[in-house]
Amino acid sequence: MRFPTERFPQERCNGQVSEQVEGRPLAESLLIESARKGDQAAYGELVRAHQDIARRVAYLVLRRHNDVDDVVQMAFVKAFRALDRFRPGSDFRPWILRIVRNEALNQARGSGRRDRLALKVANASGGAAPSPEAMVVEAERRKEVLTALDDLPNSLRDVVECRFLLGLSEATTASLLRIPAGTVKSRTSRAMERLRAILAESDL
Q1: Is the separation of the CB atoms in 159 and 187 below 8 Å?
Q2: Within 13 Å of residue 66, how many CA atoms lie on the same side as its CB?
Q3: Would you put residue 112 in left (φ > 0), alpha (ψ -120 to 50) or beta?
Q4: What are 28-86's pLDDT values in tens digits?
Q5: Residue 83 and residue 9: Cα distance in Å, rounded?
Q6: How far apart are CA 195 and CA 186, in angstroms?
Q7: Among 55-59, 125-129, 180-184, which is the least confidently predicted range?
Q8: Helices (H), the chain
Q9: Which residues contact 136 (CB under 8 A, 6 or more apart)?
Q10: Residues 100, 168 contacting (CB under 8 angstroms)
Q11: Own/partner pairs for 79-87, CB < 8 Å, 24+ apart?
């Protein structure tokens, strides 16, 4: 059974899933119910809706592109087989992202390799091509930020990656990491304080 990820077209659940009903998109709830009954087409719509964020989660764990698609593919297959254990009325995104993250962690432990995370820095040059000097400076800044991020304890780094690199809300981060929302807030604050202190030593 295969649920391709990157090769799927880019539409999302027949355009856009309808807005919130009890915190969840109505159309997504219907898709989940159909998928739980074995409807692979409905599950394919769920895959399309969550594949991008799933790939980003896998990449944050693996720190390399090579295995991301395989990990996400396997995670979606495992999730399909586990849909009978999905609690109706729950939020699907944290549930599927936990499966993706666990699959990526298993892959990372098995391979024993963790490449550096490549941060995408917004281009603030107003469309002008950066000078070679500016590119060197920016590369050094990224290197310092990555080094500082890797120096954080796992519990703090996980929260920073979820909140700022994945752009997840506090609630989704809490559900994904299985910690209280208040813990997400406190860890975020602690992580940012430590990052500021580390980067201040480098004048960043």
Answers
A1: yes
A2: 7
A3: left
A4: 899 999 999 999 999 999 999 999 999 999 998 887 788 899 999 999 999 999 999 99
A5: 24
A6: 14
A7: 125-129
A8: 26-36, 40-62, 68-81, 92-111, 132-151, 154-160, 170-177, 181-200
A9: none
A10: no
A11: 80/1, 80/3, 80/35, 80/40, 80/43, 83/32, 83/35, 83/36, 83/43, 84/36, 86/32, 86/36
Phi first, then psi: what are they for 20, rounded to 5°?
-65, 140
Residue-range domain boundaries for the chain = 20-111, 132-200
Which letter, b or e, does each residue of 120-155 get, where b requires 16 or more Cβ atoms within 10 Å of its Cβ? eeeeeeeeeeeeeeeeeeeeeebebbeebbeebeee
3-state secondary structure of 152: coil
Q: Which fold has domain 132-200?
A: Arc Repressor Mutant, subunit A (1.10.10)
Indicate the class that CATH gives domain 20-111: mainly alpha
Tokens, residue 188: 């975020």
As given in the structure block, the two tokens for residue 170 are: 């506090």
190, 156 contact by CB (below 8 A):
yes
User: Is the backbone of residue 9 left (phi > 0), alpha (psi -120 to 50) or beta?
Assistant: beta
